[in-house]
User: Which sequence fits this backbone?
């Protein structure tokens, strides 16, 4: 009986040790001390809202969404005339109100299926690419 009790206590200790630590905030509230997904992968942050009236183009919309994430859009190659023309197009009315969406999905929505988003996590840079001319990684 004593052996069984020791095994149960040891098993309970192992189960508790593998759980993330808790912080007790009040009598009925405790919070796990682990980062949430949006803190670990910045592109999984959730966005919901209406883009401000100052945002007129697709490029401005991408830049606006990236501001709080820590990512930046790379400058467009001046030789990429089609991409520059696309990014300078007016933002569609349907894209003025977004969400709730993950940031990665919102960016993909803004550029559409004709373009690809390449993410460089080391430098926190986002590049819009033509998938037909490059073999970059897409989210």
Assistant:
């Amino acid at each position: 009986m004593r052996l069984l009790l020791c095994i149960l206590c040891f098993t309970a200790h192992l189960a508790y040790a593998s759980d993330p630590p808790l912080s007790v905030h009040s009598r009925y509230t405790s919070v796990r001390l682990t980062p949430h997904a949006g803190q670990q992968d910045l592109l999984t942050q959730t966005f919901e809202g209406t883009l401000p009236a100052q945002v007129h183009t697709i490029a401005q919309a991408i830049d606006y969404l990236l501001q709080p994430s820590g990512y930046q859009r790379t400058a467009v190659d001046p030789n990429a005339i089609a991409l520059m023309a696309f990014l300078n197009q007016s933002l569609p009315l349907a894209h003025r109100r977004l969400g709730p969406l993950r940031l990665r999905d919102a960016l993909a929505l803004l550029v559409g299926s004709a373009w690809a988003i390449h993410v460089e996590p080391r430098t926190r840079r986002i590049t819009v690419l033509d998938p037909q001319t490059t073999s970059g990684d897409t989210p």
